[in-house]
Amino acid sequence: MFSSFNRTLQEVKSGDGSLSRILASSQNVKINAPQLLLSNSLPDLSNIGSIKSSAKKKQPRGYDPKLVSMGLARRTVRVGTGGDRYIPCRKAMNMEQASFYLTAATCVSDPSKLPKPKERILKFSQERPAIPDKNEDEVPKAKKSARHIPDRPEKMLDAPNINNDFYLNYMDWSGGNILAVALDQEVYLWNALEGTVSLLMTAGLNEEYITSVKFSSQDSNIVAIGTSMGRVQLWDVRACALQRTMILDENRPGRVPALSWCQHIVSSGSRLGEIRHHDVRIMDHVIGYAYNHDQEICGLQWSPDFRFLASGANDNLVCIYNADRSFQLQGVEPNHILNKHEAAIKAIGWCPWKPTLLATGGGTADHHLRFWNAFSGVCVREVDVTTQVSGLIWNEEYREIITSHGDGALRIWKYPNINLVKTLAEHEDRVLSICASPDGEMIASIGGDENIRIWHCFEVDKMAKRLEREKHASMFTFPQNFR
């Protein structure tokens, strides 16, 4: 034990302090005398004046004015605790126990001792409340944000002199990104990549006008064009040259409102309710007939796998033909005749990811969307859309359907619930025909207001799509050293 005062052992024993009383008693206390007389423990008495001035401000316990002149202020030494307020005795302290109490305050409390939920209501706390452990699988995933569908078209083109006729099919978009548009007696080509417009052909007969256009599914440079005089012509859009003319019937010509390709065979629907199949590779091009409609055929489409052909006409009937029996010169009976519509059926579309599912849309008196099973002919769903349906296109990327209507609007529906996703109302007259770009993102619509509008309805994240394709491709890639 060290002392800060220069006193001899005899003075300590004869003094009246607490230490002298302890030494005078019978307690067995050992004092190391040499340590009390160490020279290096002598205090610096040069600042006694400052000590006096500070003593006036604050007088500690045991303060005696008589001892100030000597630089000696009496203080109490607590031997029971092993040290006084200023000179602690480390040996008398339990440092391990003190360390335990200090660190225990930062430890996580026992969950059973946490406050109950009702006790935490409106309780202010600067600390964040403890979150109980939760399985990662139970955490709900963030919902994918809905995509943005522009309300206005991305581009507009003029379409003067168009025939405002519900039964005709005026447009088609090729795999080479060429849009063909029929305007009265002429067919124009719009290059979607370059933005250029060119004239492809003009009807050669008097009072003849264009009634339908359809690009080949095998060669994007070949387009079939139907006319009001019952002719089907094949044109090369790259060379702007006529390849062939096929006449349906010279004795009783009827216009050709609908065309559809099945590889090298182009099928045509006439105003007389007749379907003809033309093999464009041979001289005698007609290889099959079908006479099952009483009025004009305005909708005609092959399924994506070319197993079925669906036709819709002004007699309110939809016919489904099997490809195995369609190409017969003696006439073919359909697999199913669907008669639930109450108006003409122009809008016909096959589901791209389920080729046996057919969607049809009725005219003004019907205004229904109906979905059919091509195998059984059963109507699996029908929805009233309250207006004439003039066109129908499936979108595989978003599993949606876009339809065009007599009120001048395009509507996007979610399949299979047929919930309305978006309404695009820009045309000032009824929409006559619609078609999709080769990548499926863009939709072209032509209306009785003599305008063509290009809509960006189904935008796709191309980077995410490419990564998805690479991921699926790697699943079927064998290592090079596979044996």
TrEMBL record:
Q: Does the keyword Mitochondrion apply?
A: no
Q: Entry's InterPro entries?
A: Cdc20/Fizzy, WD40/YVTN_repeat-like_dom_sf, WD40_CDC20-Fz, WD40_repeat_dom_sf, WD40_rpt
GO terms, molecular function: anaphase-promoting complex binding; ubiquitin ligase activator activity
PROSITE patterns hit by this protein: WD_REPEATS_2, WD_REPEATS_REGION
The protein in question is named WD_REPEATS_REGION domain-containing protein
Tell me where in this chain the CDC20/Fizzy WD40 domain is found.
157-455
Q: Which regions are annotated as WD repeats?
A: 290-322, 424-455
One Pfam family assigned to this protein is WD40_CDC20-Fz
- Could you tell me the Gene Ontology terms of the biological process aspect for this record? anaphase-promoting complex-dependent catabolic process; cell division; positive regulation of anaphase-promoting complex-dependent catabolic process
Question: Which keywords annotate this record?
Answer: Cell cycle, Cell division, Mitosis, Repeat, WD repeat
**Entry's Gene Ontology cellular component terms:** anaphase-promoting complex
What highest taxon heads this organism's lineage?
Eukaryota
Organism equals Rodentolepis nana
